[in-house]
From TrEMBL:
It comes from Pseudoscardovia radai. It holds the Pfam family FAD_syn. SUPFAM superfamilies: Nucleotidylyl transferase (SSF52374), Riboflavin kinase-like (SSF82114). One of its GO terms (biological process) is FMN biosynthetic process. Residues 184-203 are annotated as: Disordered. Keywords: ATP-binding, FAD, Flavoprotein, FMN, Kinase, Nucleotide-binding, Nucleotidyltransferase, Transferase. Pathway: Cofactor biosynthesis; FAD biosynthesis; FAD from FMN: step 1/1. It catalyses: riboflavin + ATP = FMN + ADP + H(+); FMN + ATP + H(+) = FAD + diphosphate. This is Bifunctional riboflavin kinase/FMN adenylyltransferase. InterPro entries: FAD_synthase (IPR015864), Riboflavin_kinase (IPR023468), Riboflavin_kinase_bac/euk (IPR015865), Riboflavin_kinase_dom_sf (IPR023465), Rossmann-like_a/b/a_fold (IPR014729). Residues 245-406 form the Riboflavin kinase domain.
Amino acid sequence: MTIDWLIPDTKGAVQWPALPDGKKGVLTIGAFDGMHRGHQAVLERAVEKAHELGAISVAILLDPRPAAAHAYAQQHDGADTPDDFHDPDALMPVDRRLELIERTGIDRVFVVRYTMAFAAVSYISFLGQMVGKVGMRTLVLGSDARMGAKQAGDLKAIRNLALATGVFELDVVDNAGPGATRLPFQWTPQAPTEAGEPHDPLEGMNKAERRTWSKRHHAREARVWSSSNVRYLLGNGRVHDAAEVLGRPHAVEGTVVHGEQRGRTLGFPTANLGNPVDGYVPVDGVYAGWLVDFGEAGQAEAEAGAGADGAGAAAAHADGVTPRQEIRRWPAAISIGTKETFDRDGAPADRVVEAYACTDEELDLYGHRMCVEFCGFLRPQQRFDSAAALAAQLATDARSAAALADGQESAE
């Protein structure tokens, strides 16, 4: 898979690379945040269609997420996101998205820096460039895709344009999966109050009850297979349901830093991820999952970051994605939140992500790049009367996490 990093100019124009040997392209476009089952269906259809036509499959990857870029612009007088912009609502960083896109068999990816100038380009102009400069023959989109200035390019408009010009065809993928769900129009993360994986509040409701719930929460319809739904699920502790949409456990990544050593004192040394953490951090609570070690964060990571941030200005390209090398993994009890038992005189504590590896090995993970995968919600955060009571609960959490991980591994 070849990757091109492209930055639009001040008018939103992009120097689109031409496909080699005069070949035509089968294109799709999106942020692909989370690379959930819906994204996979669209990308796999693009690959399939390209094989049928003897064409090249191309994914145009928008980064940062358009929603995040527009939100930033609204708060900063229309400015574009800075180079060091961190999007806490992104399900995964761009390098992880590229790694998963490559697994679908896509031939080429154009990573486009999403700017306000680029956002102002009409869908007609954009698609004209895709046909004239890139050689697009087929455009593959999901069932509710929109594009262009003010999102005017819906499926009806794009289909009419394809029929009127006759220079490309539109292939629409049914990427709704199990169908639609209802999400509150505005919501904030809500930590579960009871132990165990939370249930879907709509489960078992009849139509009248669902309507009542929707009115009370000002709910809107959304695809089950959508990034918005994944964020909502994670924001309510429903990591198992989120994994069903993603097709794999949700994960966050970071570099292990020194904490306050309290876990080690209690006999449960944890790997603390330093900020910023890459990926959407679920709501506060204690989870079962996996702690994955990719080794010391070093030159390879620095080079990967430089490629994503700096190569676009020169429209540089690279062949493929350097896959992360997993060294080892352990079942883990994962804590997200503040350390309630050890607050300081009522002062607010920092929110942290820390994981205790369920192993008898002596681990020294400081400075390592780590991934935390979430497999199940164990319990809400709580305050304990003593360090001994906390240690006893941590032992229970570790046993529960190891048992859940062992069960999933056996199922596989």
